[in-house]
From TrEMBL:
The keyword Lipoprotein applies. PROSITE patterns: PROKAR_LIPOPROTEIN (PS51257). This is Membrane protein. The lineage of its organism: Bacteria, Pseudomonadati, Pseudomonadota, Gammaproteobacteria, Enterobacterales. Gene3D superfamilies: 2.30.30.100. InterPro entries: LSM_dom_sf (IPR010920), YgdI/YgdR-like (IPR010305), YgdI/YgdR-like_SH3-like (IPR047807). Residues 23-70 form the Lipoprotein YgdI/YgdR-like SH3-like domain. Keywords: Cell membrane, Lipoprotein, Membrane, Palmitate, Signal.
Amino acid sequence: MINKIALLPVVVLILGLTGCTSNYTVNTKSGDSFISHGKPELDQSTGMTSYIDLNGDYHLMNTNDIAGMTKI
């Protein structure tokens, strides 16, 4: 019983942190817009930006093609 009570704050903390991920709108120079789940990541060595869309699919795009990103 004591273990379950001690585990409850940890479970609440984990559930709270998983909901804190913000979505971003990625705007390209060609005028397209994409919504990413979480902040897109830039790989300095390849010059590519990766992001995961709202469906959970992984995408890569050239960083030079990105006009801007907005947190939503």
